[in-house]
Design a protein that fits this description.
Layout lengths: L1 E5 L3 E5 L1 H7 L2 H4 L21 H19 L3 H13 L12 H8 L7 H5 L1 H9 L4 H8 L3 H7 L5 H14 L8 H6 L1 E3 L5 E3 L4 H19 L2 H20 L4 H5 L3 H9 L5 H8 L5 E7 L5 H4 L3 H15 L7 E3 L12 E4 L2 E4 H4 L1 H13 L1 E6 L4 H12 L13 H6 L7
Antiparallel strand pairs: 1-2, 3-4, 5-9, 6-9, 7-8
Helix pairs in contact: 1-4, 3-4, 3-10, 4-8, 4-9, 10-12, 12-20, 18-21
């Protein structure tokens, strides 16, 4: 057994197969992948890693297994899945995942191939555990997979608290100990919260809803992520680096490669010096034409070229950032009410209000160097069929402007 001091959960005891997995190269690599990607450019203390988060998820999984009475081989598989659930992440966590997924068809939780070969597979087989079964749990498959990846998973019960702790914002504070204690399986084998826990489930969604605009969707984090994705795409398009190789880099590998590649060196310099693009356009959901909301990646690249040409700026100095439709996965969490498992968004008026608020917080962004924002803004109006009056100004960017008081400005 190994005891590790953790900033969130105090002492974490790692034993069994998880202890053996802890020192594999694949898990140790997570020490060099930041949990929040580029958010440290907004919140300087947000330098925690996927490694410590994985330990926290393991700790939560152990607590959940004890409460649910799951023992033996099934428990060991869940513990293995918890400690391994993030080893498929590429550099800067989720930031480059859309890019690598388009070229490999794999998301970070598609880890079957990774588990079958290499050190992880050897350790699992030494403990008489089939690697593909652990990979299935990471993907959320089966009854016990819900513990690791689902609406009530131990993953978000760690990252909300950990991200709030390291950014210094109070919004991710949840009673994760109670959430873990109140987990149960209904008659259909679905992981739900026990009777009397509607408010407990609501607290999880409130925390997620507040952390999204404050941390995960902060405009500086979005701009820096978009610049990093642009640099990653340029790297793949202009060098022999493959998407598969990019997926297995850590943060330091990627930045070093970008700095030493002619076509990406300038973006790397901007990233290193926090000389980021600025918002030329910041538009609300209802003011964005449907064809933009449904745009594919190639359409977005094409519009970027048109805007750059119209604005008279260099190709690559315009980034069009169109988030996906607002969604709140946790709203489908089920809670027992009078013995019946009910969806939280059908039971809770508060959750319905949070869903509406999430759409109100949605923004389309167009980013450019500071000296080019005015001409890019005008070009967007002419090119994308967005009314000038609909564009949110830099000063009056609603909730985002208010939240900037808690972080560094762009």
């Amino acid at each position: 057994m190994k005891t590790i001091k953790d900033s969130v959960h105090d002492h974490i005891e790692v034993d069994g197969v998880a202890r053996a997995l802890l020192d594999t190269p694949e898990v140790q690599r997570l020490r060099h992948i930041t949990q929040l990607g580029t958010a440290s450019l907004v919140y300087p203390s947000a330098n925690h890693t996927r490694f410590e988060h994985s330990l926290g998820v393991y700790h939560n999984a152990c607590e959940a297994l004890d409460h649910l009475g799951i023992e033996g081989e099934n428990a060991e598989k869940v513990r293995a899945a918890a400690i391994l659930h993030d080893v498929g992440h590429g550099p800067f966590s989720h930031n480059l995942e859309p890019l690598t997924h388009r070229r490999t068809g794999k998301y970070h939780d598609d880890v079957h191939e990774l588990f079958e070969r290499g050190t992880i597979g050897e350790v699992l087989r030494e403990h008489d555990i089939a690697p593909h079964e652990v990979a299935d749990l990471v993907a959320g498959d089966g009854q016990y997979g819900q513990i690791v990846s689902g609406e009530l998973d131990v993953d978000r019960m760690d990252y909300l608290v950990r991200d709030a702790h390291h950014t210094g914002v109070p919004y991710g504070t949840i009673d994760h100990a109670r959430l873990l204690r109140e987990l149960t399986f209904d008659d259909d084998g679905e992981l739900v919260l026990d009777e009397g826990n509607v408010q407990t489930a609501e607290s999880l969604l409130v925390a997620r809803a507040l952390m999204t605009p404050t941390v995960y969707g902060h405009h500086v984090a979005r701009i820096s992520k978009a610049m990093l994705r642009q640099a990653g795409e340029r790297l793949l398009d202009t060098t022999e680096t493959s998407a598969g190789e990019l997926r297995r880099m850590d943060d330091h590998d990627l930045l070093s490669t970008l700095r030493n590649t002619e076509t990406t060196a300038e973006l790397a310099r901007r990233f290193d010096h926090r000389d980021l693009f600025k918002r030329a356009v910041w538009a609300e959901y209802d003011d964005v034409p449907d064809h933009l909301l449904a745009a594919e990646h190639e359409d977005i690249r094409g519009w970027e070229l048109e805007i750059a040409d119209e604005a008279g700026v260099d190709v690559g100095e315009v980034i069009l950032d169109v988030p996906g439709d607002p969604s709140m996965q946790e709203s489908s969490t089920r809670v027992l009410v009078n013995g019946e498992a009910r969806r939280l968004d059908e039971q809770s008026p508060l959750v319905q209000a949070l869903q509406s608020a999430q759409q109100a917080q949605w923004r389309l962004g167009v980013y450019a160097p500071a000296e080019a924002t005015d001409q890019v803004r005008s070009a967007v109006v002419r090119t994308l069929d967005i009314e000038e009056s609909a564009l949110v100004s830099e000063v009056g960017a609603g909730l985002h402007a208010t939240l900037d008081q808690f972080a560094e400005g762009a």
